[in-house]
Amino acid sequence: MRDFYAWELQQFNQNRTLSGALSRTWDKFGACWKYYFSPLLTIPLLALPWVIRSRKIRLPLIVGAVFLAGLAVETWTMPHYVAPATGVIYIVLAQCMRYLRLWRWRGRPIGLAVLRAIPMVACAMIVLRVGAAAAHVQIEPEWPRGNLDRVAVMRELDHRPGQHLVLVRYPVRTGHDVDHEWVYNEADIDHAKVVWARDMGEPGNQPLLRYFNDRKVWSLNGDQSPPDLQPYPLSQDAAANRASVH
């Protein structure tokens, strides 16, 4: 949590400078463009210079401009923050498509052909993504999918008998990514099949080891991929205490 808030403070301080604000604004609008438009729906925007001249579309454009102005001063922005303006986005897109439909080149209705191609390409992309998911082929960035290494370790421990305690360490020298987290638990921790905890070192781990004395203890490097799950090396005193309990 300390590292996470230190990162947020760095982003905030960067946003207070002119160059930092411009850079972050570019990043924010780039992420939103990729999420809501992508190259496919950017094609209708070619007709935007003609659309903005229409009085009918003036109100949605004003609403969208005010919304974007408010978004620009936000320090942190994710694409779903733009969700309230989704209606405005697609009103403008639909109007752009109406204008694009009228485009002609040497008497040929090229605008109509382009518009017919857009839904066909969109449907093909859906088929591609569904097919990739069915074939277990990764075609999207790994980060939004979550910590898949943790899923693999959890699946392995679910098939092992008994209950388990996993002590996760993050070596300082690796600069751990705070979005790649391992340590979180079920609401009823005491009865969970697997309990996850931070490795606090031999002395700091003793209260936890005494409390969960009936569990198999494992050690894991949270920055190693694929993960290498190893039995936790108990000290002689800790091993003797656990043996006496059993």
3D structure, described in words:
- 52% of the residues lie in helices and 8% in strands.
- By secondary structure, the chain is α/β, with parallel strands linked by helices.
- A 4-stranded mixed β-sheet has the order 2-1-3-4.
- Helix 5 crosses helix 6.
Strand and helix map with partners:
Blueprint: H1 2-15, H2 18-36, H3 38-42, H4 48-51, H5 58-72, H6 86-100, H7 110-134, H8 148-158, E1 164-169, E2 194-198, H9 201-211, E3 216-221, E4 230-231, H10 236-245
Parallel strand pairs: 1-2, 1-3
Antiparallel strand pairs: 3-4
Biggest sheet strand order reads: 2-1-3-4
Number of strands: 4
- What percent strand? 5-15%
| Average pLDDT score | 87
Distance between the termini: 36 Å
Largest sheet: 4 strands, mixed
User: Order of helices and strands, N to C?
Assistant: HHHHHHHHEEHEEH
Provide the low-confidence segments as ranges: none
Q: Over the alpha carbons, how many angstroms does the gyration radius reach?
A: 27 Å
Structural class: alpha/beta
Name the overall outline.
elongated
Q: Provide the helix percentage.
A: 40-55%
So how many helices?
10
